[in-house]
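Appendix B. Raw example, untouched.
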Amino acid sequence: PTAVEAHPLRLSETSRRGNVAAIHLLTALVARAATNLVRRVLYRQDWNIGLVRRPIRDVLSGMQAHDAEWLPVRAGDNFLADPFGVELPNGNLLLLAEEFVGARTRGRIVAATIDGTRFVTPPRPALEPDSHVSYPYPIADADGWVFAPEASAANEVALYRLASEAGPAERIAATLSGFPAADPTIIEHEG
């Protein structure tokens, strides 16, 4: 008999190392999955929006969380993040923010009107594309306000306008295509 026929279960050193590596990888994947499961069961992230009616330099110089006026906390796996405010002619604040609901697994842009720290109009969908959007950075133009949300999953930066405070937003144009920009912040430079 040949060596192969005489020892059919004998593994080469290379095969043994490969098997050991595969076992280590499998163990690491199971450990990571177990850790993630424990985190989901035992921990929950709570996000909220606080309004600060002071100059940004005060915030940067050590202001504390209790110095903010907090909006009402939302229930469950539902939060608002990436807020931007635009002062309206009546003194209220138009809030643009990302709304994230865990069951949807992607953010959308909502708009709300705020008087002090209470919602005059509740957050309502302003932009809900097929992919995640967040960070609705507002930009003043001749006709009012437009916003450029992060849409890196769509591989573009586009401008939208709220037709009214009640939304929904209308797409104006893509300003940058084929680039997954994160938190695009558009500024005017030299006119």
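End of appendix B.
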